[in-house]
Amino acid sequence: MRIRPLDLADDRILAAAYDVESAANEHARPGWIGSGADARTLGWRADDGWTNRLLGAWDGGTLQGLAACMTSDDVPDTTWILVWVHPDHQGHGIGASLVQAAERACSPSTKRFVTSVTRPRQEDITDLEIRFLSPQGYRVATTETVVELDLAAAQLADVPMVKGYTVSSYVDGIPERFREQVGQLKGLVDAEAPHGELGWEETAVSPEEYAGEIDLRIAQGRSSVESIAVDAHGNVVAWTCIVVPGIPGKAAWIEGTLVLKDHRGHGLGAGVKLASLHEARRLGGIDRVTTSSDDQNVRMRSINTALGFLPVEVEAIFQKVRVDDELGL
């Protein structure tokens, strides 16, 4: 086996990488549906403020596994590492070798590695932690529950009228006059929600970055359904977004939801979520919607439960502090 970088400009290699990723996910998460090779390739190549590196484990001309290391320009001290090994080649140390190679390939600015694992049961994550992640030095930073709404059958309540606020919905982009404020809310989603030991900080999205996100999704065949609440002064105080994949049978997912602190307690979180779900239903072609919340995020979990979301999977986010040896010091 040899591990070497994958050329992001090579369509054939990225198609093979997608096949390995899909096979590994389908094996670990029965019923999993991918986003399609073309959409995945566009994501890897996107000029979206992330530096993406892919490494492949090869046996001759066969790609057995791959690792991705992804670092955001906004958070250069944190690198996400994800690894997929084809089921036919699991159990031979390929995954561990890929993790170690990906850690070495990361920027010197990286101070910690983060990875996410989603499985049908907590027992599956615990087993992977004991067998694979813990020996590599990764520890649980937080846990989340993935929930799903049967949108086709859901009995959605009407969007509540809240005095002093106006709720509206948009497909594939909100009006430009709101984009700077929405970018600020998007940057607060991870920072203000419970996140265990991850220590996320605010990372605002500029209007230009927001437009780039919308353009990328359209190129990938996806749609964005966003709902916002605007106060009497014309300020955006609540936001949510559903991403519609455009793949038959694949669930849409909620990118995030946030209500500014000074405007909480009025039902705006549930209001914008309801509005986006109604708009997604009108858009059509969406049977299911998924989302996840940190297990300590009691408020958002209660909102999702009240809307009819039910648990379907569990997720754990692991992290590892980089040591000097991994920097070659």
Could you give the distance between the termini? 27 Å
What do we call the CATH homologous superfamily of the largest domain?
Gcn5-related N-acetyltransferase (GNAT)
Residue windows where pLDDT falls under 50 for at least 5 positions: none
Structural class: alpha+beta
* CATH architecture level-2 label of the largest domain: 3-Layer(aba) Sandwich
In spatial order, strands of the major sheet run 1-2-3-4-5-12-6-11-10-9-8-7
Choose one word for the global shape: globular
Largest sheet: 12 strands, mixed
Order of helices and strands: EHHEEEHEHEEHHEEEHEHE
The averaged pLDDT comes out at 96
Q: What is CATH's topology name of the largest domain?
A: Aminopeptidase
Proportion in β-strands: 25-35%
Question: What's the level 1 CATH class of the largest domain?
Answer: Alpha Beta
Number of domains: 2
Total beta-strand segments: 12
The helix fraction, in percent, is 25-40%
